[in-house]
Amino acid sequence: MTPPPDQCEWFHLRLRVRYAETDAQGVVHHANYLVYMEQARTEFTRARGLPYRELEAQGVNLLVAEASLRFRAAAVFDDPLLVRLRITRVRSRTLTFGYRIEHEETGRLLVTGETTHVFVDGAMRPISAPAFVLDALLGRQ
To answer: What pLDDT was estimated at residue 3?
Structure first.
């Protein structure tokens, strides 16, 4: 099941590349893009009124089952980044996010990506996506 088109708008998170996130070549180390994506997911759920901490308190976790990245250009120390996120696919037990990471000032596309998450309970057993979670994340409240 896919979210309705009006629920597929991009959520935006602004970040600035820290020196510690760069490698010996002076560019953002590839693994940090996954961290930026996680930050965007965390802020997205908070903005939708369902912070991760609340999810966990309700006995629901979203585990990353799959992640993919496509690198298009490099970011360097102190670059302002715009991380865009949206829900691209909803299934009975999974949720997929799509990402675009851009240089905020130039608009240059740096990275695209996708993560798929499995809903699990407190014992880490797969569960169906709870309605209250989907309602919050898809803006159906």
So the answer is: 47
The 10 Å CB-count burial string (b at 16+, else e) for 70-108 is: eeeebbeeebebbbbbbbbebeeebbbbbbbbbbbeeee
Weakly modelled stretches of the chain, pLDDT under 50? 1-7
Residue 14 in tokens: 């602004």
CA torsion sign, 27 to 31 to 32 to 37?
Answer: positive
Q: What is the C-alpha separation between 91 and 126, in angstroms, rounded?
A: 12
Measured between alpha carbons, how far is 73 from 54 in angstroms, rounded to an integer?
Answer: 36
Residue 85: partners with Cβ closer than 8 Å, 6 or more residues away: 10, 11, 13, 37, 40, 41, 44, 97, 98, 99
- Given its phi and psi angles, is residue 48 left (phi above 0), alpha (psi -120 to 50 degrees) or beta? alpha
Domains of the chain: 5-137 (3.10.129.10)
Whole-number Å distance between alpha carbons of 106 and 98? 21
